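Listing 4. Sequential folding, example run.
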Amino acid sequence: MSLTLQFIPYSRIEDLTSYQRIDLLLDLVKNDQILVLEGRLRSEEEAELIQQTMASIDKKFTGIELSVVYPEKKNVDFFRRLHQQLVNIILGDRRGLTIIGPANIVKEIKQDPEKIQLFTKEKRKR
């Protein structure tokens, strides 16, 4: 069994419509790829992705696992927080990573402030 991780830079999806983003991400996950997306989807896009996923579930596609990792640091000084807020305003608050994988492969995604752990399960033959 091979495992495919695909990194998607934000620049790859920034010019797409919400529908196109969701369609692209869902198509890749349906092809058994685990995605590491630079940035995050907007909350409405996440909700739509989950809705589209639920509508797509069948014997071959059992859903997705999704986790968003935020790069927040505790005890940041005032000027650093101000800088982060300005960057968020300019760039649209897309800091972080989004991990999306097919539920038939990704067992669990655990995160804490210092690491991300992605646990997989053996893929069943279709």
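-- end of first protein; second protein begins --
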Amino acid sequence: MSLPDPPKAVDWLEVREVGDEVVVHDRHTEKIHVLNATAGRVLGTCDGKHSLDEIALDLGRGTGVEPARVRDDVERIVATFVQLGVIEPVRPA
């Protein structure tokens, strides 16, 4: 699967932090997704401005782990977001 790079969260999500988790309401499908803190941080960085490498760098800084070690995790999380329909490719202006 080809991942959007940079990935962008769709505009119709409602995102709230609840304790250590992030609750995401997809208003189009009316589905609720509960993310752990790591996946929530990745989603929060999927703004269409940050590449997958930059997201891995941010996550690595936040966790104290080398970005190269978390890059596969970032790709796996973004791939899951694509399957859920909460990430879209950035459209050229």
